[in-house]
TrEMBL record:
Residues spanning the signal sequence: none
Example of a GO cellular component annotation carried by this entry: ubiquitin conjugating enzyme complex
Name of the molecule in the record: UBC core domain-containing protein
InterPro entries assigned: UBQ-conjugating_enzyme/RWD
Origin species: Pan troglodytes
SUPFAM superfamilies: UBC-like (SSF54495)
TM helices/strands, residue ranges: none
Length: 87
């Protein structure tokens, strides 16, 4: 049994999927929002976190938190609650 696929929630509103893959922690995890979010650093069409250069899940999540709290992202209009990406 391996723990390579994770589902997470942020603020109880935003759902995301984390796939660490077989080469984790040498290779960075794939992180994708399931719930639509309008935020710099997130691909608007797929929900993928754009920069996954860090190979540690904890650091990726901390960076997402920092991005969500940034003034420029807090000012962005958000999609209606409950909307999800198609893929």
């Amino acid at each position: 049994m391996t723990f390579t696929r994770w589902t997470g929630m942020i603020i109880g509103i935003y759902s995301l999927k984390i796939d660490s893959g077989p080469k984790y922690p040498e290779a960075p995890p794939s992180v994708r929002f399931v719930t639509r979010i309008n935020m710099n650093g997130i691909n608007n069409s797929s929900g993928m976190v754009d920069d996954r250069s860090t190979p540690v899940i904890k650091v990726v999540l901390q960076e997402l938190r920092r991005l969500m709290m940034s003034k420029e992202n807090m000012k962005l209009p958000q999609p209606l609650e409950g909307q999800t990406y198609d893929n």
